[in-house]
Amino acid sequence: MNFPQPFENCIRSQFGDESQAFLAALTESSPVSFRVNNYKYTDSINLPQVKWEPKGYYLENRPIFTLDPLIHAGVYYVQEAGSMFVGEVVRQTIGNRSVVALDLCASPGGKTTHLLSTLSDDSLLVTNEVIKTRAVVLKENVQKWGCPNVVVTNNDPKQIGELTHFFDLILVDAPCSGEGMFRKDEKSISEWSEDNVVLCAERQRRILADVWESLKPGGFLIYSTCTYNEEENEKNVDWIKQNLGAERVEIKVEDDWNITVTPQGYHFYPYKTKGEGFFLSVLRKNEGDICTVKLSQNKKKQESFDTSKIKNWIIDNDNYNIQVNNNIVYAFAKQYQNHLLRLLDKLHIINSGLIIGELKGKDIIPDQALALSVILNKKAFPTIDLSWKDAILYLKKENIFKEGYPKGWLLATYNNIPLGFLKNIGNRFNNNYPSEWRIKMAIDTETQQTMILR
Question: How far apart are the first and last CA of the chain?
């Protein structure tokens, strides 16, 4: 692997005698790691564990994840091990408290799904992506993960910053020069330059400044990048402390985690830690007066709907308001209804809470998000458990038909874990899997692949 000479010079200057070991590590294969959805899978797993994440594991080789129905069901997420440190930070700073949190630069959703699994069940997460096409991917991964207390937005950080003192916790996994991606993406090597590092550092500061007002006094900021250089990491942490008013928060790490601790944060260097390049720092906003902003009084009238038809479709339904907007029926936590109104007043929302289904005349078509939700009441639908072959055919949105099932909506599962809905119309099943999610690659369904989870 040929690195830009200025990059090598920076590494040699920063790491001295250890620079050769550092550069050599970048020529090795990337470790493969994944994180299990603790709401959907609780069996023991006999694989090497990520030391700082109880639900994180390593694989010896990278399988073809597309061939595993469980990844489509939101049972696990393939994520770089260093990034999983966010969960430990949340456990040490937030604990079991109910909070309102923001993942600012969230697509494709690795850290968002991690926050959903780590924050308390009665917390609310707003997850944002500024690029529209990437926001669509974020929405898909959020729906697959299945947690209901989440709002997906597509906004510029400056717009979110207008939500004065709204969040208890903000995660900014900032767009960066991508040095930690060199092993995975050779294109990132050719795109690296000293000028780009400077531009990225400036952009990161602008993003942080734009969103800062939305963090409550005393609230926590988690700032992270996938870079090694001090310009985008330590120097930006110093800038946050000096210009925005914050103090750094210490996170306890164990010696055998091999995390490099600096005065400003935590580095995951690939020659020391099993993972890719990652930097993280935790800061606490200085105390001050919390601004109370009145909610908009311009409340949109909800469409009338007989909720008794679908109330048994979700568990704990008394905790959720069932609402209708443009014939889309969705559930949103009652305790955060006022927060939703404020978000609707300020932001472009592409998904809020759980989409239950769509009204079609007197009928309601259950939504894919409902099938994958952790608050789905599986007893509300007859279930058809699919073989691996049929599960793949279902995920490719191809035809399946089995005798002996009642007419109407069926919940398709794999290993008893929901995949989506089928409708038995008598002589065939209509496949209700979303067309935009379907597997497009050619697959030999006669030869089953070995799955990483049983």
Answer: 37
Q: How far apart are CA 424 and CA 440, in angstroms?
A: 24
> Token pair for residue 114?
């991690």
Domains along the sequence of the chain with CATH: 5-285 (3.40.50.150)
What number of other Cβ atoms are within 10 A of residue 159's Cβ? 18
Closest CA to 228 of 55, 2, 3: 3
Q: Give just the sign of the alpha carbon dihedral 81, 86, 89, 90.
A: negative
Q: 227 with 194: CB under 8 angstroms?
A: no
Among 396, 352, 422, 343, CA closest to 142: 352
Rounded-to-integer distance, Cα 28 and Cα 2, Å:
13
Is the CA virtual torsion 328, 333, 336, 337 positive or negative?
A: positive
Q: Are strands 408-414 and 417-424 parallel, antiparallel or unpaired?
A: antiparallel
Give the separation between CA 5 and CA 21, rounded to whole angstroms.
17
422 contacts 410 by C-beta, under 8 angstroms: yes
46: β partners: none
pLDDT at residue 332 greater than cutoff 90: yes
Strand 265-268 relative to strand 260-262, pairing: antiparallel
Per-residue pLDDT, 294: 61
Q: How far is CA 291 from CA 215, 294, 454, in A?
A: 11, 10, 50
**Residue of 62, 44, 59, 51 lying closest to 87 (CA atoms):** 51
Q: How confident is the model at residue 391 (pLDDT cuts 50, 70, 90)?
A: very high
Q: Is the dihedral angle over the CA atoms 179, 180, 181, 186 positive or is it negative?
A: positive
Assign 295 a pLDDT band (cuts: 50, 70, 90): low
| Token representation of residue 149 | 């207390």
Quickly list DSSP for 251-284: ----GGG-PEEETTEEEE-TTTSSS--EEEEEEE
pTM > 0.90: yes or no: yes
Encode pLDDT of 201-238 as tens digits. 999 999 999 999 999 999 999 999 999 999 999 999 99
Interacting residues of 25 by C-beta distance below 8 A, sequence separation 6+:
269, 270, 271
Regarding predicted confidence, which is higher, 182 or 280?
Answer: 280
43: pLDDT strictly greater than 70: yes
Please, is 349 exposed, middle or buried when counting C-beta atoms within 10 Å of its C-beta (0-12, 13-18, 19+)?
middle
Two structure tokens written together for 156: 């510029």
Helix intervals (H) in 146-248:
157-160, 186-191, 194-211, 234-239
